[in-house]
Amino acid sequence: MNLRHRLSTLVLATTIAATGTFSAIAQDQPKSGGTLRYAVSDDPADFDCHSANHFAALMRLAPHYSTLLRFKPGAYPEIDGDLAESWQADPATMSYTFNLRPGVKFHDGTPLTAKDVAATYERLAFPPEGVVSERIEAFRQIANIETVDDATVRFTLKAWDTSVLGTFASPWNCVYSAALLASDPDYPKRKVMGSGPYKFDDFVSGSVWKASRFDGYFRPGQPYLDALESYTMEGPAVANAIQAGQVATDFRGVSPASAERLKGAMGEGVAVESGPSLTHFLVTFNSTKRPFDDERVRRALNLAIDRWGAAKALGTTTEMRFPGGIFMPGGKFASSDEELKQFAGFGGDIEAARAEARRLLKEAGQENLTFNLTVRNGPPIVVDFGVFLIDQWRQIGVTANNQVVETPPWAAAINSGDFEAITDIYSALREEPTEQMTKYISYDQSARSAGRFTDRELDGLWTKQTTETDEAKRKELLRAFEKRLYEKSYSLPVVWLERDVAMASALRGWTFSPSNFLYLDQSSTWLAE
Amino acid sequence: MRNVFSAPVSTELLSELPRRRSAVLRFAMDEPLGALGLVVIVASVLLTLFAPLIAPYDPLANDYGAAVQAPSALHWLGTDSFGRDIFSRVLYGGRTALLIGVTASFIGCTIGALLGIGSAYFGGWMDLILERFMEILLAIPITVLALVLVSTLGRDMMLGIDVNLVFAIALPIIPKMARVARSQALSMRRMSYVDAARTLGFGHFRIIALHMAPNIFGPYIVMLTAFVSQAILIEASLSYLGLGVVEPTPSWGLMLAGNAFNTAMTAPWIVIFPGLAIAIVIFAFSMFGDALRDLLDPKSNRDR
């Protein structure tokens, strides 16, 4: 079965599973009450959604905040209003106008108005000194934010860009209180106070995060649960905790082996939802350091990686299932297998590619290249990915020393550029090239891009596609971007993951999607027992 | 000094041979478990030394076409999720375990012995401070202490060995050895030969190193052997927790970590064989250490 068939089957299976779930939900009326206990693999560095870049932070923070729009539960990737009751897009004036729901309150009882939304987006798009807006490039098209009245806010764009609608639905863009921001622009780092379905109760670092139902939540009847308790744990401990009934799930997912183990051990007591994920593994070379400033060296290391063989083999034991470029394989923006095979590093003949890699290294005077590969000491799959790369490069005579470090020094290395080569994981919110490509453009255009390179041709292609409304022409630009990226080999996508979420069968109302950033506010989640 | 080339070698050596053989035989008869331990240790050392000749595969080579294969004629102990041959990795993993185990135990015991003797010899405030410091170290569980040190110090590779890992394993051994050495040295301190050395004006270092240290060689060698097993176990534990040896270097503890746990239900050979290797070698060192203690401890001999 080729990749396309496998993916189609997976998508179909996901759809069937999801349809089954929704029909089950339709038959079952949501029940109120109960405490949902779930696992989260890490603690947040602080409590600010806008500066956070780790899904573990969002898993804790999302239930406490509302956003302007949201991804509609049960209908991914459809966008729905959250705080906004309705909105109007006007290409002529290049503006979006949002009408807010009446009567929305923050957890402290103060009313949420257009001023709060405007202050939040001012902080995101034009952060004051000292405030970090992690995804600032997503707001680059916003020219002006205007409060029309207490219930209406208008965004004027520099250029017409439909991708911005997804930005308004991003769960990272938690709406904060304008009054609190005025007194301290950094208050969200230390205080959790939003208008989401659950109020913050307590956090014990390395242990548990507790939240309870916000009775003043604006959706009638929601949330269904009395309380949320998320426990910090990762790896095999998660599957053990699910099996023992200590937690209901880890919304990020478990390994396929763990999912199989749980199905075998728990039978109908567990439900596993599987499907392609918007998450992929990549490796980045520091283009400012020798010998990675030499294109031939980076390209040789790219050519040595057998992506097709890897996915076939690694996929049998891990969730590293699909070879792909910078877009989700099988997705609407992805290159076809035939297109991919034309790109450097994706050819079908790995022996020929490795011979070329050896030639390039010889030409660059780096036949016995040795360097350090920085790998985050995260879930086993992250280390496995490093081991895979080391073995691939070993086959062209290159020695990569595995430097496994904990998450803080790994993040510090990415941020400071103190690495030679580093493995990374990138999870997107949705299939949207403008957002996804920010991982692969010049560092001065996007802080997410870790390679420290400057390539105006790549940046130009990225910018052009943001305003291209003809889908075919946009895809041509995307292919041109990919071709250049793989030739220059600054930063390389290697393999895409499958997502397997194992849940206690009593857990209902939660929506499975390819992104592990979505549907984390738990507003529609309920417990059957 | 005897000139071995001119001495009547044949008769002397020939007469010594049965004596040596009988000593080995006596040890085997008196301490059969210890002898068995010694055999296992020697076999382990030989297997790991000659691993490049014995191992059928490169322990680092991934072969995804052969991933998670059960033991067979091709792969005697099966393969892991990277398709790496487990037999080859167990052999090379023995190198890591023995190298780190022996080095850490040697460093810990030697420093501990010198500190213990020095503490007893000088007495007074130095003895008081050293003893309290050793008590503090002893109060912290050995694995916890090593864990804290490794996670604080990070990794520092030298000649293929993580120096910080060796130090982290050696440190908890020091106070245990120091206590034993101190108690032995306390009784030695007032011995006439130590007084004589002092009267002759020998320096402190000379008295400690040449006159006192050789007299605790018995307990030292017993402790050294016993701590090798403990050091191997700590190395395996730290590697299992992701704080010791890193992939793809073969290490028994590391072979039990990561995805091995998840695949263990369907591919038990991935965890059984490295687990067995750890158990067998630790058991062998423990048995040999016990036997040595019985042999070298006069009180123990008298009781028997």
Describe this structure in words.
The complex is a heterodimer of chains A (529) and B (304). Helix content of chain A is 33%, strand content 22%. Chain A is an alpha+beta fold and 529 residues long. Chain A has a domain at 276-498: Dipeptide-binding Protein, Domain 3 (Dipeptide-binding Protein, domain 3, Roll), CATH 3.10.105.10. A six-stranded mixed β-sheet of chain A has the order 12-16-11-15-13-14, sandwiched between helices. In chain A, strands 1-10-9-8 form a four-stranded mixed β-sheet, covered by helices on one side. Chain A has a four-stranded antiparallel β-sheet with strand order 4-5-7-6, covered by helices on one side. In chain A, a hairpin with a 2-residue loop joins β6 (142-149) and β7. Chain B has 304 residues and is mostly helical. Chain B is built from 15 helices and two strands. Chain B has helices spanning 9-30, 32-49, 51-54, 86-122, 124-139, 142-153, 163-170, 173-188, 192-199, 204-212, 217-240, 252-255, 260-263, 269-296, 298-303, and strands at 157-158, 161-162. Chain B has a two-stranded antiparallel ribbon. In chain B, α4 crosses α7. The longest helix of chain B is centred in the middle third of the chain and has 37 residues, at 86-122. The radius of gyration of chain B is 23 Å and the shape is globular. Chain B starts with 8 loop residues before the first helix and ends with a helix. The relative contact order of chain B is 0.14. Chains A and B meet through α8, α10, α13 and β14 of A and α13 of B.
